[in-house]
Amino acid sequence: MNVSVCLIVGIVSIVNSGVFIGAWTDGQQQRANFHSEMTKNRSFRTKIDKSQVS
After folding, report:
1. CA-based, 20 to 30 A from 24: which of 31, 32, 33, 38?
2. C-beta neighbour count of 30 within 10 angstroms
3. Per-residue pLDDT tens over the stretch 6-54
4. How buried is residue 41: exposed, middle or buried, by Cβ count under 10 Å (0-12/13-18/19+)?
5. CB neighbourhood size of 28 (10 A)
6. What's the pTM?
7. Under 8 Å CB-to-CB from 33, ≥6 apart: which residues?
């Protein structure tokens, strides 16, 4: 019983996080999101700050 509860909680957590980060979008939606985003916003979002990298 305890294992099944942990399994259900884990699956619900994975599905929930996937919904909120937009992991389950089709190719057409990803392409539309990419082309509707401004270049400076995309570079800001994907930039790695050198102070955070050791």
Report:
1. 38
2. 11
3. 999 999 999 999 888 888 888 898 899 888 988 888 888 777 766 666 5
4. exposed
5. 8
6. 0.52
7. 22, 25
